[in-house]
Amino acid sequence: MPILELKHVSKIYGAGTKALEDVSFAVEEGEFVSVIGPSGAGKSTLLRCINRLVDATQGAVFFDGEDVTGLDKKGLRRVRTKTGMIFQHYNLVERLSVMENVLHGRLGQKGTLAGMIGHYSEEEKVEAFAILEKLGLAEQAYKRCDELSGGQKQRVGIARAIMQRPRLILCDEPIASLDPSSSKVIMDQLKEINQTMKITCILNLHQVDVAMQYSERIIGITAGHVVYDGPASRLDQETIHQIYQSRSGALITDRAERAV
Ligand SMILES: Nc1ncnc2c1ncn2[C@@H]1O[C@H](COP(=O)(O)OP(=O)(O)O)[C@@H](O)[C@H]1O
Ligand SMILES: [Mg+2]
User: Fold this and answer.
1) How far apart are the CA of 42 and the centre of ligand 1, in A?
2) How far is CA 199 from the centre of its chain?
3) Which of 109, 119, 218, 229 is least enclosed, having the fewest CB within 10 Å?
4) At what angle do helices 122-134 and 150-163 cross, to 10 degrees?
5) Which residues surround ligand 2, an ion (CB under 5 A)?
6) 127 CA distance to ligand 2 centroid (A)?
7) Residues 105-137 pLDDT 10s
8) What is the mean pLDDT of residues 78-104?
């Protein structure tokens, strides 16, 4: 059984913007999938429909055997706990320490009171520190997040996601704000987590070359439609042009600037 399956998912935003139209695909446990497509294609909406940050207008999303589209609050909390999310702008609590941000990854699994007063067990702290060590952030553990570089902040974002012990990690443009060398560190770490911890990863990426370098499978979307779903090795120039439509010129500039 696939860990994730989208069946005929469509999303129309309030004003009538069709962000996704009849999107269907399945992802097996342990896959590392990149979603590419021009700005406005529906990539963020797609990821957000998976953990219900956005509600699909039509269709169903099965995660770990259950349809998340019909879940109540409790069920939704369970699904979100199993789904780590990594954002372009990190979404950390900047005034708190690195450790505190990583521990927040465990919030979803706590009772309301323990979560509210920020009570974490010694085991949880040891685990958080071990994750930071693994990601090369041991020295930053007690710094405030606003003292870190962008690349370090994104590593904290990854650590927080791992702290959730997720089955799936969704990354929305994880390297779009980073320089090439920090981008490489982040991509290498995501790949490592995928391979050693068997956590399924789905990444929205703006950079085709990075997607091709790191993922076995690529999903290309244009104007809310899946126009390619297959191995990175079969993604040819013609398909790339089709995905990016008339934006192929911009794409080449982007790739040159952002090559990792
Ligand atoms: N909250 C929203 N309200 C209304 N329209 C939205 C909202 N979020 C995204 N859209 C629109 O949906 C389309 C897809 O957006 P998005 O999923 O952000 O694409 P991408 O991540 O590929 O850039 C765009 O036309 C965008 O303007
Ligand atoms: Mg987006």
Assistant:
1) 6
2) 12
3) 119
4) 130
5) 43-44
6) 32
7) 998 887 766 666 778 999 999 999 999 999 999
8) 96
